Input
Amino acid sequence: MRELVVRWQRGWGISRGLPEAKDLGEGLRVRCLQMGRNVEYFALDGVASIAGLAELVKGEDEVTWLTVPTTAPDQAAAALEKAGLIVLKRSEKLMVTDLREHPRTPAPPGYEIKTTIEDSAVRVLALDQDGEVGARGTMGIAGTDGIADRIETLPAHRRRGLASAVMGALAEAAPAGHGLLVASEDGQPLYAKLGWTAVADVLIASTPGVSYPS
Output
């Protein structure tokens, strides 16, 4: 699990243009300045990492998350609460796939796919006939890994197969063979249909009073 988390976080950081994470041994720390949190810790050893990392989270003077990929989600949730943190979210999954076997889905009628590669990231837009964005996605490239991130279909364009087309375009353009992503509960059925396999639950926790951004 440790290796997968390190690989996923590296590509996720590239996708979002973040500074390189600091390796603390039992976890990673990154100053991410993302919506709803300024600092984020990533547990590398599941439940065994939680107690020590929770103390670091509580010592931060900015909004800080602790993200825990684990194959023992109930134990992790209990350990987080015992350490004085609150679980903000526990429905996400770390998923993997072979990008070389990923389905390539064409854009539906009335849309075109635009792909660009820059700064070690593949970016895909699905544009309608008026040039408006219907869906988008990014894949950070770290070595032989491609980390899919921010796959989004705008509300007016949903249920047309755009997310599948975006994912296929990312997989086709990425100079990588191994795919990783952290999937929301809503996204998991799509990714499973496209051949992605869940390998761990992902729990997100923070100090009391912090809320997950809506």
